[in-house]
Amino acid sequence: MRAVVFDMDGTLLDSVPTVSRAYADAIRSLGGPPVSPDEVVAGWHVGHTELVLAHFLGRTCGPAEVERFHAHLDPAVAELRPFPGIPALLDEVADAGLLLGVFPAATRRVALSMLAAAGIDARFGVVVAGDEVDRPKPAPDGLLLALRQLGVPAEATAYVGDAEVDLDCANAAGSLGVHARWGARAGVRAGAHPVAARPYDVLSLLAAPPQPHGGNGTARQGDSDSVRPIGSSADQLRLAGEDGQS
């Protein structure tokens, strides 16, 4: 394994409630139907901000509608934080010599502002946003672009995400999809992907021997103090237990 790319909302950042509320408020203020944050989450797989607004408003949207969304979102961005354990996970992966990237569905404007507010923007060598590719997830376009920019092949990369579209995107690209279950997103097929219940579990999944496609690679909780190599690399990862999460 040479690189790890992450989804953002619900994976790196505990941002799903904040973003979904901003969408619901913006849609209502733009004359759209009353939608709940849960309904927004169920429908935002269509792509970046402009496409999500168009989906719920039933009309073409442009800069004016996007700015209305930002009027609701931007005041809350400063309060966003990474999930517990994410900064430690990023440190461990980087210390092992693996490259780090982010590919969210969000626009570049949203992604950069959120990552900066959470204090983790400098950890990533590459950020590819949803508005920088033609097709949204589960199409692999954005992930493949991130891998080209990182200079690594898909088969040497893991893509970590909390939603079904993230894992299907990884499969389509030829990468290892890891389900970030700490984001608690419903609707992911059980047993179809390796599962990380907590951020540090990602480390043990990367260190484990390769499994047949579609195998259930749930990380073992007893691995928290072990040291194991990643693939054929000489780098090793010390798995951080729950007490080591930040």
Task: Note the beta-strand portion.
Answer: 5-15%
Quaternary structure classification:
single chain
| Uncertain residue ranges | 212-246
The CATH superfamily label of the largest domain reads HAD superfamily/HAD-like
CATH third-level topology of the largest domain: Rossmann fold
Domains counted in the coordinates: how many? 2
Q: End-to-end distance, in Å? A: 25 Å
**Mean pLDDT figure:** 85
Structural class: alpha/beta
**What would you report as the Rg, rounded to the nearest angstrom?**
18 Å
For the largest sheet, list the strands in their spatial order: 3-2-1-4-5-6
The ordered H/E elements are: EHHHHHEHEHEHEEHEE
Tally of helical segments: 9
Please write the CATH class name of the largest domain.
Answer: Alpha Beta
* Major sheet size, sense and barrel closure: 6 strands, parallel
Helix content: 25-40%
Coarse morphology? globular
Q: Any idea what the CATH architecture of the largest domain is?
A: 3-Layer(aba) Sandwich
Total number of β-strand segments? 8
